[in-house]
From TrEMBL:
Pfam families: Snf7. InterPro entries: Snf7_fam. Residues 171-200 are annotated as: Disordered. The keyword rRNA-binding does not apply. This is Charged multivesicular body protein 6. Keywords: Endosome, Membrane, Protein transport, Transport. It is found in: Endosome membrane. One of its GO terms (cellular component) is ESCRT III complex. GO terms for biological process: late endosome to vacuole transport via multivesicular body sorting pathway; protein transport; vesicle budding from membrane.
Length: 200
């Protein structure tokens, strides 16, 4: 379980960040120790004053002041260390972004190579436009040469070919007038006669 080596290698950057964070933790521990010492020196100064030993109280306050100056220096060092750690971590993020951009650019260039470059795309677009224009010319020429009667004959021939292929004969077109048309004409005559009769 814990005996197998990790598949993720620790880089020099990872080690440097870890070292800086360890140093930060040590500085925090040092600050806590100094704070305890300053509190103790203050308590000693109070105790010495209560006993009437002013020189020892003064010495304790001087040691307290010295410890406070060390604490201020530690704060400044801690701030610098935290800024440096943040800068290194941000630089690593930037490095990853740049690597991602490089990879994306490489993939994009490969895709462009597969497409044949800009000249190939322009040639292809030109060829397509030429083919469309040629097809229009052919359609216009054929359409202009045929009359409506020719077009009807072509349609009839197409229908006949479809009937041959499917084996289903097409119904014949009636040559006599339809009954419904005759009825409509008769009704119209009756209505006209009724109008004439009403007017008279």
């Amino acid at each position: 379980m814990g005996n197998t080596p990790s598949s993720h290698k620790i880089s020099a950057q990872d080690k440097a960040i870890l070292d800086m964070k360890n140093q930060r933790d040590k500085l925090h521990q040092y600050q806590r120790r100094i704070t305890v010492l300053t509190d103790r020196e203050r308590a000693i100064a109070k105790e010495m004053l209560a006993k009437g030993d002013k020189p020892r109280a003064l010495l304790a306050l001087r040691r307290k002041k010295y410890q406070e100056s060390l604490l201020a220096k530690t704060d400044a060092q801690l701030e610098q260390l935290e800024k440096l750690t943040s800068s290194v971590e941000f630089a690593l993020v930037q490095k990853d972004v740049v690597f991602g951009l490089q990879q994306g650019t490489h993939v994009l260039q490969e895709i462009h190579k597969e497409m044949g470059g800009l000249e190939h795309v322009e040639k292809l677009m030109g060829d397509t436009a030429e083919a469309i224009a040629y097809q229009r010319e052919v359609s216009d020429m054929l359409g202009g040469m045929m009359s409506n009667q020719d077009e009807d004959e072509v349609e009839d021939e197409l229908n006949a070919l479809e009937a041959e292929i499917t084996g289903v004969p097409l119904p014949s077109v009636p040559t006599s007038e339809l009954l419904s048309k005759k009825r409509a004409e008769a009704r119209q005559r009756e209505q006209e006669e009724q109008k004439v009769a009403m007017l008279a």
